[in-house]
Amino acid sequence: MSILIQQATILTMQDNESPFMGDIRIEGDRIVQIAGHIAVQPGDDVLDGRSKLAMPGLVNAHQHSPMSLLRGFSDDLKLMDWLDRKMLPAEARMTPEDIYWGAKLCIAEMIRSGTTAFADMYIHMNEIAEAVLETGIRASLTRGMVFMEEDGGRRLKEAVDLVQRWSGKANGRITTMFGPHSPYTCPVEPLREVIAMAVRDDIPLHIHLAETIEEVQKIHSRYNMTPTEYLVEAGMFEQTHVLLAHAVHLSASDVRRLKGMRGGVAHNPVSNLKLGCGIAPIEAMRTEGITVGLGTDGAGSATTLDMFEEIKAACWLQKLDYGDPTRLPAPDVLHMATRGSAKLLSVHDEVGMLAPGYKADLILIDLAKPHLQPIHNVESLVAYSVNGADVHTTIVDGQILMRDRKLLTLDEDELYREVNVRAKRIVEGI
Ligand SMILES: CSC[C@H]1O[C@@H](n2cnc3c(O)ncnc32)[C@H](O)[C@@H]1O
Ligand SMILES: [Zn+2]
């Protein structure tokens, strides 16, 4: 199967390369050529790129995909109340089939808004993997582990099974991590056990860190440390790649401690804003050379999975925090949402950039709209003006998942019927 995109404005996200007009040839799952003009070959599926911008698909570095079923069910609460009183009781009622449909709802929204890969942490991960397999998106899947009660090793066994069963599946679209949920739900013994297993088998870790001031207080009263120090003391950063979600409440010395870490931080500005968590010190992390990517968190908290909203919110927060509009400029935030997040998912050697040899994970944005004209600066336009509804075409692994805004791997009517019935049953009486 070959695809030829003709005469698009191309933003490759390669270092020091300005946007230019040209063609992109895709063969199988890879980009094979990018040039000013590429001849059509027999059998090519030709996509008209005129008035469109081709860029790498966005990578959502922190998600809880089935929480799309809980979007709008419980808003305007503090994180711990929201989790304990609303989310956990609802999750206890979710069947594996609910998880499957919730993940599909989430994936539909992501494909529609230009996300081509995501990092997920949840329960019943086999069903999420099935949804990823069917829909064609790329994902790094993690069985989230809360160790506050003895479970006879069930969660850890499920995490190991996920890795063994799904790593590298779907032509490499599916990868896996281990997911101890957070410092406040993982006492040191099981945490050390997971870290040792991750080191032994070279499996990356995905964990929430320092999301709220309450978490900082809790960890301080339990261990007389910051949440970051707690993970450092447990040996988390010694030999493993770690994806840290949130990292809002880091002291200056916490940031220095993370310098040189493998992996990095998934910044979730919309969720942090909505839950009133605080502003993550993104500019300080970047100064220390820490990789920062962007994520949404689950739709239960963020409400939207549109990464273009995260891009805007990330810029606005750093500018506001420093009282300085030069902070987190457009090219840097786009780097975070593509190459930065791809690094957090350990796929940066083939995802996050448009280049020959890279995976064909890309989007076409329709620029023929009043809010996207005139075009002075493509990167500014993408960061500050584009939104998810402007995405015209989404391609992952060389497969077109959305064309002219029609989803090709999902039946939306069936999807909306299923999720409405299931969502109502799950939340009833909570
Ligand atoms: C055990 S699977 C993952 C677990 O995480 C919960 N969750 C969703 N959003 C957040 C958040 O912002 N901080 C901490 N935990 C969160 C989700 O409800 C699942 O139970
Ligand atoms: Zn989360």
UniProtKB/TrEMBL annotation:
Q: What is this protein called?
A: 5-methylthioadenosine/S-adenosylhomocysteine deaminase
Keyword terms:
Hydrolase, Metal-binding, Zinc
Q: What class of enzyme is it?
A: hydrolase
Provide the cofactor note recorded for this chain's UniProt entry: Binds 1 zinc ion per subunit.
Q: Which Pfam families match?
A: Amidohydro_1
Give the source species.
Paenibacillus barcinonensis
Any idea which GO molecular function terms this record carries?
5'-methylthioadenosine deaminase activity; metal ion binding; S-adenosylhomocysteine deaminase activity
PANTHER family, sorted = AMIDOHYDROLASE-RELATED DOMAIN-CONTAINING PROTEIN (PTHR43794:SF11), AMINOHYDROLASE SSNA-RELATED (PTHR43794)
Q: Which cofactor does it need?
A: Zn(2+)
Q: What gene, per UniProt, encodes this protein?
A: mtaD
Q: Which InterPro entries match?
A: Amidohydro-rel, Deaminase_MtaD/DadD, Metal-dep_hydrolase_composite, Metal_Hydrolase, MTA/SAH_deaminase
Q: What does this protein do?
A: Catalyzes the deamination of 5-methylthioadenosine and S-adenosyl-L-homocysteine into 5-methylthioinosine and S-inosyl-L-homocysteine, respectively. Is also able to deaminate adenosine.
Give the protein family.
Answer: Belongs to the metallo-dependent hydrolases superfamily. MTA/SAH deaminase family.
| EC assignment | 3.5.4.28, 3.5.4.31
Q: Which residues bind Zn(2+)?
A: H62, H64, H208, D297
Q: Which domain of life is it from?
A: Bacteria
Annotated Amidohydrolase-related domain residues: 54-400
Q: Where does substrate bind?
A: E91, R143, R154, H181, E211, D297
The question of whether Hydrolase is a record keyword is answered with yes
Query: Which reaction(s) does its UniProt entry say it catalyses?
Result: S-methyl-5'-thioadenosine + H2O + H(+) = S-methyl-5'-thioinosine + NH4(+); S-adenosyl-L-homocysteine + H2O + H(+) = S-inosyl-L-homocysteine + NH4(+)
